[in-house]
Amino acid sequence: MVNISTSGLTAQSILQIRDAQATLSDLSNQLSTGKKSLNYADFTLTQTSTLLDSSTGIDKSNSYLNVISVLTPRLKMYETSLVKLSGIASDALASVNTNDFNTATNAALGQQLTAYLSDVNYYLNQKVGERYIYAGTGTRLTTPPVIDLTTLPVPPVAPDTAPVTSPTLPTSDTAAPGSDAQAYTRDLTNIDDGYSITYGITSNDQGMQNLILGLRWAYAATQDSTNFTNYMNTARSLLTNAVTQLRDIQAQVASNQNRLSDVTTTHKTLINDLTNRAGDIQGIDSAEVAAKISFTQSKLEASYSVTAKIAQLSITKYL
Fold first, then answer.
1. pLDDT (tens digit per residue) in 281-308
2. What does the pLDDT look like over 24-37, one tens digit per residue?
3. 73-263 belongs to which homologous superfamily?
4. Which conformational region is residue 178 in: left (phi greater than 0), alpha (psi within -120 to 50 degrees), or beta?
5. Prediction pTM value
6. What's the rounded Cα separation, in Å, for the pair 178 and 167?
7. Is 46 left (phi over 0), alpha (psi -120 to 50) or beta?
8. Where are the domains of the chain?
9. Per-residue DSSP letters for 132-187?
10. What three-state secondary structure class fits 202?
């Protein structure tokens, strides 16, 4: 009779130990993860639906934030380079305000215009990562979009005497002569559900072409006393258009930067809200869980002690 009782107590004690160990494991997981459970089966249907919706929303917003993080340095580079290009257009326009040919003055002006062309070449061939940001789209992204502008004919020759339109390539383009619509296509990407921005700028934009041609005609004027006035008039017209168009492009970049900033704030706010919403369901009180762990450990130690005593009692009775 004593043996049967002892066996029953031992079995009961072992069950209590297993329950305490399972509880301790669950509590330890809660404390390490900060969540009541990682198993949706532990929640009600409504809670599970809320958790799944929150997780999906957070993942989606994070994916858009990743896209924005890629776009941000490109827009920053556009901003920086456009400030320089716009400055070149304004400075060049100010320097070609004469119709009087002067050999000494024109020599210095010619050198300055050549330097401007080299600077334009540098800024239009800017890269962010492995991408040439002024190249357009598609396969062009890995190739510098503009050749050495100082090597182009003086004066410009037909058909490159005025800006061309898509898909015809100006002679300043690396892939010229020929045509390529990708050289004019601006990048477009989604930054939220149903919300995209067109942010890319190409080296063949009308403002860029006017700037390059204006500098080339102005340089040609410094080399030709006979056609000086006509060439300078053409240069001033082209550079005047370039100044206006480049400022418009700068405004577009600034607008896109503001959009990215606003949408970034929206996504971060949504992630915070969804995280809090899920936390209301999954969250734990760390102090409370720690107290439960301490209590369960004490309970488990007591069960071990009881089991050991029962085992000793069983052996004694047997002997």
1. 876 656 765 776 777 777 667 767 766 6
2. 666 676 666 666 67
3. f41 fragment of flagellin, N-terminal domain (1.20.1330.10)
4. left
5. 0.80
6. 8
7. alpha
8. 2-53+275-318, 73-263
9. ETTS-SGGGGGS-SB--GGGS-SS--TTTTS---TTBPPTTBTT-SSB-GGGTPPP
10. coil
